[in-house]
Design brief:
Blueprint: E1 11-13, H1 15-19, E2 30-33, E3 38-41, H2 65-74, H3 81-92, H4 98-113, E4 118-124, H5 126-129, H6 139-147, E5 153-158, E6 169-170, E7 175-177, E8 187-190, E9 198-200, E10 206-215, E11 221-226, E12 231-235, E13 242-254, E14 259-262, E15 269-277, E16 284-288, H7 311-318, E17 322-326, H8 329-333, H9 338-352, E18 357-361, H10 369-389, E19 392-394, H11 396-400, H12 403-406, H13 420-436
Parallel strand pairs: 1-2, 4-16, 4-17, 5-16, 17-18, 18-19
Antiparallel strand pairs: 2-3, 6-9, 7-8, 8-15, 9-14, 10-13, 10-15, 11-12, 11-14
């Protein structure tokens, strides 16, 4: 069968021709500007000069130059749709600059190079402590596994438990007090020899144990002894109140070491936590100091109930390379204003920046409308605040969206606290931010 070929010619002319044309292209009619190499398709009533070009891409597959130029102009102008979208996306997370994250980057580079360890401190409330699950399933614990692909990591500083299960601690007759220490409300205290031993079993390979304690005038002797017999007695009656560290070292690293605490005097002694590790193995140690019920105003104080016993003093004593701060759910419960909330967080940032970098995390959405609304006000203020403070920001609330969206996905254990799945998701987001930073 013969093949017939035909040539289709569309209406065409120079730019001057089209500029002077007195009639519109008919609906579906094509027109070609030979000067500018532009094709337009008529709608039956729009004149040539007002018709958009039909060209969607150039020969190299790129958007036309005029379109690219318009986009480039619009994305830097927040009054345009494109600019507003880019500004929102950029503002929600980030500020991971050399100025904000340099010290953390250097610490992690040292871990990867095998020349040093890095300390990560997770500051927060019950959602950091792991309420609704256990300390072992909290986001800081999950962060250890999430980081492992990029940097060797292990559990770090552990504090005495309150409201959240942590079988590594045995309190004996010692009391978890709520007048000073972490969040100005958590320390392990004994005030007489009769209460016996308290102990901590890290459950992971370790040969070095940094014990953090509070000392001030009138306090007694803290006896620290390992299950293998290594021991030390610490006079905690310093003239001025302060958080201090004493290190006890075992001759052999095992996963079964037990750190025992005893008070041989009729005077108070106070333990704030233990950081256990293998001295010869550099890694990133993730410490969890989440305190259930705590709000932002409890984390920035150096003073505390006893001079030098506040949270800021404890953070400075631990000297983290990176501090993650996730506070706000209890502030929202107490209707703390945005300005007051930011001022409180600024005080905590100041303590953390004395030794390292800081990332702020927005909180998970609440199932209580009034509290959720205030949490979103905190979140909306955090990106600009983070830039002003020179710290990073990770939007956990934005990741969860809302309680109504995330709860059916199994992200919550109750109306406020994440489930195991929720804590894994938070850890994943934080690990990615650390990798990017």
């Amino acid at each position: 069968m013969a093949t017939d070929f035909a040539t289709i010619l569309m209406r065409r002319g120079s730019a001057d021709y089209w500029a002077g044309s007195g009639r519109p292209l008919s609906s579906g009619e094509w027109g070609y500007d030979e000067t500018n190499r532009v094709v337009k398709i008529g709608d039956g009533f729009t004149m040539w000069n007002d018709l958009p070009a039909a060209t969607l891409s150039s020969a190299d597959g790129q958007l036309p130059t005029v379109v690219r130029s318009a986009l480039a102009s619009n994305i830097v102008d927040i009054s345009t749709t494109e600019g507003a979208a880019v500004a929102q996306a950029a503002g929600r997370e980030g500020n991971f600059t050399v100025a904000s994250m340099g010290r953390a980057r250097a610490a992690f580079a040292g871990v990867r190079a095998g020349t040093r360890s890095a300390k990560i401190l997770c500051v927060g409330d019950s959602t950091t402590a792991g309420y609704g699950t256990s300390s072992a399933l909290s986001y800081p614990s999950r962060l250890v596994a999430a980081l492992a692909a990029g940097v060797p990591a292990r559990a770090g500083l552990s504090i005495p438990p309150r409201q959240v299960e942590d079988p590594r601690w045995s309190l004996g007759g010692w009391a978890v007090i709520n007048s000073f220490g972490w969040a100005d409300s958590l320390a392990l205290m004994s005030d007489n020899p009769g209460v016996g031993l308290a102990s901590y079993t890290p459950g992971a390979l370790a040969d070095t144990f940094d014990v953090y304690y509070f000392g001030t005038g009138g306090y007694g002797t803290l006896h620290v002894e390992l299950d293998t017999g290594e021991k030390i007695d610490v006079d905690t009656s310093g003239a001025a109140g302060s958080v201090q560290k004493v290190t006890v070292t075992a001759s052999v690293a095992t996963a079964n070491h037990v750190v025992n605490f005893y008070n041989p005097t009729p005077k108070p002694v106070a333990v704030l936590g233990v950081d256990a590790y293998v001295a010869a193995t550099p890694n990133a140690r993730v410490g969890n100091v989440g305190v259930s019920g705590s709000a932002s105003g409890q984390w920035g104080s150096v003073q505390g109930a006893v001079t030098g016993s506040g949270s800021a003093a404890a953070i400075r004593a631990y000297a983290p390379d990176l501090t993650l701060i996730m506070l706000g759910i209890n502030d929202a419960k107490m209707a703390v204003s945005v300005d007051a909330y930011l001022a409180n967080v600024a005080a905590t940032i100041a303590a953390a920046k004395a030794s390292g970098s800081v990332m702020l995390l927005s909180v998970v959405p609440s199932n209580t409308p009034a509290e959720d609304a205030l949490e979103r006000q905190y979140r909306d203020a955090l990106p600009g605040f983070a830039r002003t403070q020179g710290v990073g920001f990770v939007d956990i609330l934005g990741r969860f969206g809302s309680y109504a969206e995330s709860q059916p996905l199994g992200m919550y254990s109750d109306g406020l606290h994440p489930s195991t799945i929720g804590y894994v998701d938070i850890a994943t987001a934080v690990a990615r931010a650390i990798e990017v930073a």
